[in-house]
Every structure is written in C-alpha cells, then in structure tokens.
Amino acid sequence: MRKTLTVAAASINTTPLAVSENTGLILEAYREAVRQGADLVVTPELGITGYGLEDMFYVSSVMEKIPAEVKKLSREVEPDTYLAVGFPFLIPGGQLYNAVALLTHDRVLGIALKQHLARAGIHYEPRWFTPWQHGEVVTMDFAGEQVSVGDLVFVIEGVRIGFEICEDSWVANRPGRSLCRRLTDVILNPSASHFAIGKQRERVTFVTDGSRAFGAVYVYTNLLGCESGRAVYDGDMLIASGGRLVGMSDRLSFAPWKILLANCDLRTNRLIREQSGMLLSVQDSCGAGVLFTDLRFRPEDLSRPLSPEAPLLPENDLEASARVVALGLWDWMRKTHTGGFALSLSGGADSALCAAMVYFGMVQALATLGEERFLKTLASSGIRIAPRDAAVLPLEYIRKEVMPQVLITLYQGSDYSGDVTFNAARGLAEEIGAWHHSWSISALVREYIRLSDSLTPDNPLSWEKDDLALQNIQARVRSPGIWLLANRFNKLLIATSNLSEASVGYCTMDGDTSGVISPIGGISKSRILKINRYLMEQGMPLQDNTVFDFARLTIPAMAAIVAQAPTAELRPVEQTDEKDLMPYPLLDEIRRLSQVNHLAPAEVFQELLRSDFAAKMTRQNLLDAVRRYYRLYTRNQWKRERLATGFHVEGDSADSRAYRRFPVLSSALSEELRELNEYAASLGLS
Asked: Which of 24, 89, 216, 364 measures 20 to 30 Å from 545, CA to CA?
C-alpha cells in the first residue's frame, strides 16, 4: 500500500461546445502535470463540453456524442497515471447527469455522478440535470463497454479515491461523510464555481475542514476565465492534507490552463481516520460502490519531499474585482473573434475603469502568454500587429502598437460638459494608448428638441417640467455615434452602467446601458471609486510575468478621474450623482441588505439604525433613503431585464438572469412599505 501520492489540480479555460479545443487543453495540462510527477490529475466540472451550455444540454444529438469523446481521451492517458474529467452524461431513457469519469490508459474505470445540484443565483442546474441518489450504483453501457456508474470509490493499489462535485461540498450532508466511512484516501472536487468577492475564503474552509474531518487528501479545482459570457471563473486550485493547506494557486490567470501539484502523506490522513472513533462496518468499506482494481500508480519516488504547508494568500477585493473585468474582456474578445472594443469615454469613474481594464488586460495577456502567442490570439480576432522591435520597450509596444487597434474611445460633449471631464478622458486615453476622438452632441440634441417642440408649439420643452426627458435625450443621442464606430471597425461596444445604479434603475436605457457587454455591471459604485484610486496609487500586480521589467502596472492618469465627484453632466445646474440618489456607501448597504440578505423594507431600516450609518445621518434621512431605494427598485425591473451581459463580481447582481428575479409588474411592495411607514411612525418619524 502506498504511503505518499502526488496529486495535481488542473484549471482549464473552456469554451462551451468546443469539445476538441477543451479536450486539447485538458491533455496539455494533464501531460505537464505528469511530466512534473503527478500520479492523479483532476480537471474541472463539465470540462469536456464546458459548463455554460444552457439549453444546449437538451440537444440529445450533442450529448450522445460525449461518451465517445471521453473514451477517445482515455487513450491519451499514460499507463499507471489517472485523469478525472467532467462531462454531461445522458443515460438511456433521457435523464442527464453531471458526471466525472476516472480514466487510465484506454480505460474508463468508472463514472461518479453529482448528488446535489446548484440552483441559486447564477446557477440553474436542476433545469437540465437530475441529481444522483446517495449510495446508488449501477452498471451501464458507456461507449461500448460496461462501466460502473454512481456513488463510487475507486481503489487503486490500496489508495481509495472518491468525488465531491462542486455543490456536493457546499451542502450540510456532503458526500464526503459517506466517502470517509468508505475509508477514502483522496477526495477530488472538480468545480465550476463563479467568482464572487469573499468566495475563496469559503472554499479554503470546506477544503481544509473536509481534509481534517474526513481524513483525506482533498484536491479542489475550478474552471478558469469567462467561459460562456456572464460568469467569470477564477481558476482557484486548492490542495489540503491532514487538515492543512498544502497547495494554493494564483487566481484569474490569462493562461489557457494552470496546474498545481502537491506530494501528500497518506499515512497522516489514515491516522486521522483511525483516531476518529468512527463506527465502520465491512459493508461500509467493501460494499457497493467500492471498486477494487488490479491497477497501480507509477513507481513511488521515496526521495520526493512532502509538500509543506502553503501560506493562505489574503484576497485583495479591489485587485480581484479589477482582474475579473480584465480577464472577462480578454476572453470576450478572443472567443467572439472580434477586433477589440469601442467605448464612450466620458471622463467619469465608470467609463474610465472600463478603459483601464482593457489596457491592463492587454498588458497581462502579453506578460502571461509571451509575444508569439499574444499576437497569434490578437490575429484570431482580426487584429494583426507586427512583432515588437527589440529597441521598443514592451509597455510602449502595448501603448503605441496594440492599444490603438484594440480600443476606440470617444468623448461626446454636450452643452453641459466641462473641461474637467474632457481633459480627464483625453489624459487617460493618451496614457493607455487608446485611439481617442471627441465630438459635440449639442447640435443633435437641439435638433431633437426642435422636432419635439414642432409637435407642441404652444408647450415647448423646459427644464422646469421636462427635466427627465431633457436629461435622457442627451444620454441617448450619444449611443448611435459610438455604435457606428463599433460596427464600422468591428468592435464590441462596452456599456458603462454599474451595479449600484443599475439596481435602482439610475441609468438611461439606450444610453449608458447601451452596448454588447457591461463589464462593471457587477461592481458597486463604492468599489469602483476605490478601484480607480488603487490603480492610481498602487497599481495592478502582474502574474506569470516574464516580459515586463516592473511588477505592478499603475495608471497615473486616474488622478483626474479620482479627483471628481461622480456626475452625469446632463443638467444646466451643478449636478452630482450622490445628490440625485443618496451616498453610494448607503445605497450599497441597502442593496446588500435587500438583495443578498433578502430583508423586507422595515427590516432593512432596522438594520441601518443599528449600523455605523446611524452615527452619520439622522433617522429621518435613513428612512427617506430606504423609501427612495424601494421606490426606484420596484418600478425599474424592466430596465434590469434589458441590461447588457455583465460579469458577476459582488455577492449579488442587477442582472435578473444571473441573480435575483423580481416581477416586472407587481404591487411595488405596497404592503411591505406600509409596514415600514408604520414602524417609522412608532419612532416619531414622518
């Protein structure tokens, strides 16, 4: 019986339905892991097809081809090594299961099936998949051979291997408990878990706790990149042994795949099980679902040292949020084969962050991929750039040669635009190298006003009675021009609405919401303002960098953005967004209490009275803010239904397809708001 085992997690940047491409990446990662000494390699959930197939999971002619692809992949696995791959498994009779197969050379050893399906927020697995019943094992035909399927433990050279598939590990009655009763030495967790701030801490907890409680080596791997458009997967890889973290990867890499290896002591984990006092039976350890084989691992390398305890890397939420946007934009460009982006650059915080992340994405992609692969990827999107002259520094190459072809920016001034935003937009565009232009929309706005007034000559438009209409026409007039440039130069148009404002409908449909993709649509305005300052003062660290002679990319031109109070510049009088709405930190706290904690209006108000806001604002002001939030929220679901696809970053999202659904037509929470008013009256508030 082996005493140690070298395990590897492999994270893959998959594309839905690109089976040949996905399996090619899986093989590249597997081969590199084996070259580095891995005995056992696990790849992400549904990695062969991609996770985000949506209703393509219903297309049986596609699903029926997958077993042959899995069998074909097994022929590439080396003898005495083992590869776990995820795929959708359609069984006779029409039920679809979320499956993972353990492969060795030209053999499918068995197929484990997911027992708990993710059904909250962005996930909708019960729409397509059937959960497998705990403890059930059957034999099925799989690509022409009989294979055990279900709740399995594989025994190879005395080493027992089992699976928790993503959501399986997030539930209270997780399969790991049963795996422990079957004396499982290694638990593999292939996952497709989208990025959200703070989520990594939860993963570290269930990986290390699972290793300690179940007496097992625990190997977790996640998908990588913006796979199907909305979610960005962080490529998190974690390995624990003896209850200690022995492997922790970087996240949000621009590489097509990444691996993480650890050499683990099986004896330490078996001792944990011995000392646990768990009541076991022969049926537990040798019964149904425990598959004994005559297979072996590669010869044990006794000279290989055990992996030491890995440091727990703290999450910098500003860096991680920005990196999600940059990676998502990079993947959108290369997976749609579109030649970069177009952006209406207003000189404000939102559009500035979008532009900066296109820039950072190009820098990070070059740092990670190297020049040859970087230019090849750009060429696949129709962006053809000559190789860098040795005399040109890499950053100047990005600014002078790459960015003018990747990003078009346009400042569209109105009668109410000022020099501050004009100069801020121009300064940022010059620093990052965007192909920047400016023009005035004033004549277009005046013409629309003239046309409207011609219909009602006795009742012309005025700011006193038509404030909203006169603001929105300016925002909407900007859309056709930037769309024209996007179409003309084959660019993806970036929408610039953020999570805070979109959640209450403080956005103009066909204005700042206009675009193909809304990269900051999942980030609160409070966090956006902090990220912009972070980019100016500290800069984004570069991963896997062998190209640039600096470790962090700073953007000094952000100073002109940071110095401003956010403003739409749509009125003839001084205008700030927080005066129109409320302070952004308060808005974001109300949003969190309502959307993440699912509290009713009166409960939200009660929580605010117990918060730090109570020391900064009067109770009446807090009450008015809660009322305003719900008034805007309930009447603007139709706007949220029309938001461009955005990346999920915070704990919630304004996109009803990705997080919280609300009726387009409703009572507007009239009963709930009545309860809020009654509670406020009991406090002497009006």
From this structure: 24
